[in-house]
Amino acid sequence: MSSAGTARRIIFRTLLVLMATALLLYGGVIVYYMHVERSIVYQPSKVFFAARPDEQVPFSPISLTTADHIKLSGWRIDNCNKGPASQYWILFFHGNSGNVSGSRRWYQVFCRLGFRTLAIDYRGYGNSQGIPSERGFYADARAAFGYLTDVEHVPPDRVIVYGHSLGAAVAVDVAAEMRPAALVIEGALLSIPARGQELYPFLPVKLIAQNRFDAAARIPAVTCPILVLHASGDTVAPLYHSRTLFELAREPKKFIELEGNHGSAIALSADKVTAALRVLTATLQKPDAYSLKVHH
User: Which of 113, 183, 257, 293 would bridge with 85, disulfide CB 3.0–4.6 Å?
Assistant: First the structure.
């Protein structure tokens, strides 16, 4: 055999080894992503954040039990201003991290308007039992809605479901099932795979993601009025995610762009959120709530 043929064979074998090594490494990265995905999606805390003097809200703790026998904890906030909004409850779902104590800025806005609020901690968060999961989150949301309608005897058309960040997907799901008075989503994602693919373009996230939270697939099934809020400077959930959800949603709907980023918009744009919720409440009280069709 010629030296040239031997050299070609060595090069070919070397390339095969390099390709096999690269595939093994790539496969290892995929396996690692699948292993750590839960810790990326779910970041619960059992530590309750201390309130600053300007963040105090008149809450009382509540507990409820899900259909699969998980005991959840939450906050009930109903010692607020009186007014037209006091006829409504806001069922609030926070994001993927922390617990109910980290959302006081939202509760303050709701309370100033007179809304009564129920905020729950998903399973594994705060004082709630269980282990976080997508199916579990949806079950938790249904249990919270049932707590209002069955225990507090609140008519479904007096419940406004509000979700922030990952909680927006939870809110969309429960609104599609339970038909509340209205749905409000803030800082929403199209889905976990959609955002994951943007963050990890070298991985087939859309194929391997075990947690979906696919708000884009569910929002067309929502038939109540929808208010979509999103901060222009949001880098956690890019603005176009909510823009696309808005386009997928049925009328009546309204989109409002906020100042700030994913976590600060509720503080920096409190006046905008307050005004939007005030208009929403007034619209819901009209004989034809579908006048909300006028939107930005």
Answer: 113
Is-contact 209 164, C-beta < 8 A?
no
Least confident range from 13-17, 43-47, 166-170, 266-270: namely 13-17
Sign of CA dihedral 93, 94, 100, 101: negative
Position 187 in a domain:
yes
**Is residue 4, in this structure, part of any structural domain at all?**
no
The residues near 89 (Cβ < 8 Å, ≥ 6 apart) are 115, 116, 117, 118, 148, 152, 154, 158, 159, 160
Structure token pair of residue 32? 């690692």
The SS3 assignment for 57 reads coil
- Strands (E) across the chain are located at 43-44, 59-65, 71-77, 89-93, 97-98, 116-120, 159-164, 182-186, 226-231, 253-258
Q: Is residue 37 part of a domain?
A: no
Does the residue 27 lie in any domain? no
Q: Please give the span between the terminal C-alpha atoms of the chain, in angstroms, as a whole number.
A: 76
When divided into structural domains, the chain yields a total of 1
Going from the C-alpha of 189 to that of each of 241, 262, 263, 286, the distances in angstroms are: 5, 11, 14, 31
What's the DSSP call for residue 125? S
> What's the rounded Cα separation, in Å, for the pair 279 and 275?
6
Q: How far apart are CA 268 and CA 219, in angstroms?
A: 27
The answer to whether the pTM exceeds 0.70 is yes
Render pLDDT for 267-276 as a digit per residue (tens, 0 to 9).
999 999 999 9
Q: In this structure, what CATH number is given to the domain that contains residue 112?
A: 3.40.50.1820
What is the domain extent for residue 171? 42-293
Whole-Å CA distances, 77 to 27, 28, 45, 157 = 49, 48, 21, 19
What pLDDT score does 293 carry? 45
pLDDT tens digits, residue range 206-238?
888 999 999 999 999 999 999 999 999 999 999
